[in-house]
Design brief:
Blueprint lengths: L1 E5 L14 H12 L6 E3 L2 E8 L2 E8 L6 H12 L6 E7 L7 E4 L8 H10 L6 E5 L9 H5 L5 H24 L1 H9 L2
Parallel strand pairs: 1-4, 1-5, 5-7
Antiparallel strand pairs: 2-3, 3-4, 6-7
């Protein structure tokens, strides 16, 4: 089983913000694979289903970004998941809008949601799918930028990104991180 965790903040106020791109990707996967992400458990909205022959649980932590690790820790222990079967999707301000980067492990890169997950799991050896949300303007505070909404132009780019995420996640689960990295990181 794989847990695919999209990071974001709960509540209507945060819908469509840059920081919620992880939630958006979970919603896209849920729609494509007809998985209902409505069950509240592990401090998260969850939905179990199948993605191209792999059993998955799609997860949207409801703890707010900075405490995402609490939800992931509970989920990991309940399902007895190995780190490599926990895939985290989140926003990255160092990547152009819509760009995807996959890594098998690594630091939190200054992302508070990732910092919480690494701390709660006491590990950084889980795959992550970083979705570019663009660099913040120099005069803008980082928190204001990531909690801001995408432009119309950016939303158009992200439609293609959703399709690429839907394409690459099954490859990641079936063939592993290096294969998936080659699939998206080369482009």
């Amino acid at each position: 089983m794989y847990a695919i965790i999209g990071l974001g903040n709960p509540g209507n106020k945060f819908e469509g913000t840059r920081h919620n791109i992880g939630f958006d990707m979970i919603d896209a996967l849920a729609e494509s694979y007809q998985i209902k992400v409505k069950q509240l458990k592990f401090k998260a909205l969850c939905g179990e289903g199948m993605i191209q022959g792999e059993k998955v649980i799609l997860v949207k932590p409801q703890t707010f970004m900075n405490l995402s690790g609490e939800s992931v820790r509970e989920l990991k222990h309940y399902y007895k998941l190995e780190d490599e079967n926990i895939i985290v999707i989140y926003d990255d301000v160092s990547l152009d809008v819509g760009r995807i980067r996959i890594r098998p492990k690594g630091s939190d890169g200054g992302h508070n949601g990732m910092k919480s997950i690494i701390y709660q799991l006491n590990s950084d050896t889980f795959p992550r799918v970083r979705i570019g949300v663009g660099n913040r303007p120099p005069q803008m505070n980082l928190a204001d930028y990531v909690l801001g909404h995408f432009t119309q132009e950016d939303r158009k780019l992200l439609k293609d990104t959703r399709k690429r995420v839907e394409h690459v996640l099954p490859l990641l689960m079936k063939f592993g991180v290096p294969y998936a990295m080659n699939e998206v990181n080369g482009g």
